[in-house]
Amino acid sequence: MAAIEMKNIVKKYGDGFPAVNDVSIDIADGEFVILVGPSGCGKSTLLRMIVGLEDITSGELIIGGTKVNDLAPRERNLAMVFQNYALYPHLSVYENIAFPLRLAKASDEEVDQKVREASKTLELDEHLERKPGNLSGGQRQRVAMGRAIVRDAQAFLFDEPLSNLDAKLRGQMRTEIARLQKRLGITTVYVTHDQTEAMTLGDRVAVLKRGVLQQLATPRELYEQPVNLFVAGFIGSPPMNFLPATVDGTSVEMPFGTVEIPQEKADLVADHAGKTLIAGIRPEYFDDASVLDDAKLSSGSTFRATVEFTEWLGSEAFAYLPFEAPEAVQKQLEQLEKDLDGESLRTQIVVSLDAASTVAAGDEAEIWVDTAHLHIFDPETGDNLTLQKSEETPTQGGKHAEAPAAQ
Ligand SMILES: Nc1ncnc2c1ncn2[C@@H]1O[C@H](COP(=O)(O)OP(=O)(O)OP(=O)(O)O)[C@@H](O)[C@H]1O
Ligand SMILES: [Mg+2]
């Protein structure tokens, strides 16, 4: 097991396009870090550079204190689990797990001991004599992990290992991988484009956009303190709502009306008074005002809006409220949708309503919003102007990170 340090890593393919652009991430020994972002953002490229399948154009890669830029994959002693598991169909599960040990000419005794230990951890004991072709996707996944475990690798690297599985199995495997990683305490880097996977698995999550690291933070921090529009829009489902807004003191004017924000937030955006900004509020910070008690009502602002349609999910309901946006904001939101690989244009907000709400399509409803959770973004740079800077929230290197080396 080992720490992995990436220092200003750049990857330019033949055509000169920087697929990974100046990425620095420190991964502590035993930490579980997720690389997440839309298709083509450079996740697999970065992972392949760590494992040694792809040359590093510039920057340093340090594993367990040793610079490994020029080491062959074999010498790095990392275990990579691919999307297609790459199992040998003609070998039994036992021999598939044993494969790296056989290659290393381990004794039969050592092979047997290690394979049985791995199979016990992975609950594969009853499948050891079967062939991979007869196993379920989840079982094959575990065999692939077994092969990684027996190698005593310094770290596990996963590239979208669950994307071939159906939703239910994906959920189960997600829990299983998280449990195993904790039990084995092995440093793990895991690539996914699925933000739910990223949020539930990782100690920390690195969000990438077009090869550039946007934010590296715990799931909670990404959710509550996104550094920019991209991270805010990428993390969370249903996604954060974005609305045009202008600020005047503690008043924020939005298409549905004017709401009041806390003084600390107002101070952070005071320099931007009068400009058209973008407000961001997650669906759960809205509600149907008619079902709330006075204490909750007075903790936020309310506005009236016409509900276009509703979706009732049992434990909660979502209502869709359309709005008009000025052209400049509209353009910015369209660009954001493209960056996020989305297809819908967000000229509506989605609000989550209490299950007790009876608001229906076509109703004009009084909607409550918790403005303490409102973010305000600069439409030109995308930066979150209301980021709370009190805690340490560096873009690169979170609380697990080692002190950055002097450069
Ligand atoms: N062998 C290659 N030659 C040239 N360009 C490449 C090569 N491999 C990847 N790229 C480019 O590098 C960028 C990053 O690709 P990468 O495969 O790392 O993305 P990704 O984040 O893993 O995407 P996905 O979610 O689709 O797997 C893309 O623009 C891609 O076109
Ligand atoms: Mg990929």
From TrEMBL:
Origin species, per record, is Nocardioides massiliensis
Keywords (A to Z) from UniProt: ATP-binding, Cell membrane, Membrane, Nucleotide-binding, Sugar transport, Translocase, Transport
Q: Which PROSITE patterns did the record assign?
A: ABC_TRANSPORTER_1, ABC_TRANSPORTER_2
- Residue ranges of domain ABC transporter in the record: 4-235
**Gene3D superfamilies in UniProt:** 2.40.50.100, Nucleic acid-binding proteins, P-loop containing nucleotide triphosphate hydrolases
Query: Which branch of life, at top level?
Result: Bacteria
Q: Where is this region: Disordered?
A: 381-407
The UniProt GO MF terms for this protein read: ATP binding
Residue ranges annotated as compositionally biased, kind Polar residues, are 383-396
The protein depicted here goes by the name Multiple sugar transport system ATP-binding protein
Q: What SUPFAM superfamilies does the record tag this protein with?
A: MOP-like (SSF50331), P-loop containing nucleoside triphosphate hydrolases (SSF52540)
